[in-house]
Amino acid sequence: MPGSLSPEKTKGKIVLCLREGVEKGAEVKRAGGAGIISTSSPADGNGILVDAYHLPGTKVAALDAITILNYINSTKKPMAQIDPVAIVLDTKPAPFMAGFSSTGPNPIEPNILKPDICAPGLNILAAWSEASSPSNLDMDHRVVQYNFDSGTSMATPHVAGIAALLKAVHPTWSSAAIRSAIMTTANVKNNQGNYLTTAFGTEANPFNYGSGHLRPTKVSDPGLVYDASYTDYLLFLCSIGVNNVDKTFKCPSNPPSANNLNYPSLAIAHLNGTMTVNRTVTNVGSKPSVYIASVEPPLGFSVKLQPKILYFTEVGEKKSFLVTVKAKKGGKGEYSFGSYTWNDGIHEVRSPIVVW
């Protein structure tokens, strides 16, 4: 805290702070410290959120701080050196899910998988207002045009920018089609060829990343899209009891289930027997084209697509299919994850499945 460090003990020293925060660096500097090593929150796992310190400093993961502390306690004259900043490329594994990332299941409607997508949000170099210091502290009078920041607020602009560029390439596409292109072309593996992990190194799942990590180079040519109209969304709202959005629209007495919204992912909550849902894809790729379905069923469930082959002769042509999910005997009622994919040899149109 401000005023908590003794200048006599701190002067010329590198101080290890077992909590993060730029204000701690300000206190170390006030007390004459030579540098600071701070630690990320245990909740951040291996993710390290950098800070704009007022003096030479670095940050380490919470577990690494224990190693440093043990070293300090092992000798009467512990020594440390903070090297100049260096750019490190091709870090592995990357990407991984940040500890602060939003996660499912969807608390409002569990039959719609959330999140939809994940995107870069950890230590993003972005434009910064010169009216604000990089640390946002009153005593900090530095002026910068760019600064590092982290959070879902940094991931969101990546997706918004891709959506804007995609709308420029395909001006007639609906918002639902744009969402579909972003989701079905996402990647669920890292640069080591393994499945995405959490900040703690454990395997992540669709409740962490949705359809996967955003791939900007793929979105403009997804092959197929799951489109949905304004009326489709009104019917979806009817299915969850929301009927006052549009006064000109009257909900039918028996609206389709929430599962039947033409969404690029599939979530089924509390499945005891069998459920069949409808999906429709629109060909936005080449003509003619033939797409063949493949399935990775969630553990404890069987998944069948009918038909298994879709034939397209025109761009803009629509084809519908059924997805039947059946719970096997002896299921434990736990969350289970899988996927189904349409492939024409050029495009892979992947949709995650979550069932419980």
UniProtKB/TrEMBL annotation:
Record has tRNA processing as a keyword: no
InterPro entries assigned to the protein according to its UniProt record, in alphabetical order: Peptidase_S8/S53_dom, Peptidase_S8/S53_dom_sf, Peptidase_S8_Ser-AS, SBT, Subtilisin-like_FN3
Species for this entry: Thalictrum thalictroides
Signal peptide boundaries: none
Family assignment from sequence similarity: Belongs to the peptidase S8 family.
Molecular function GO labels: serine-type endopeptidase activity
GO biological process terms on file: proteolysis
Pfam annotation, one family: Peptidase_S8
Protein name: Subtilisin-like protease SBT5.6
Keywords carried by this UniProt record: Hydrolase, Protease, Serine protease, Signal
Subtilisin-like protease fibronectin type-III domain ranges (all copies): 260-355
Location of the Peptidase S8/S53 domain: 73-201
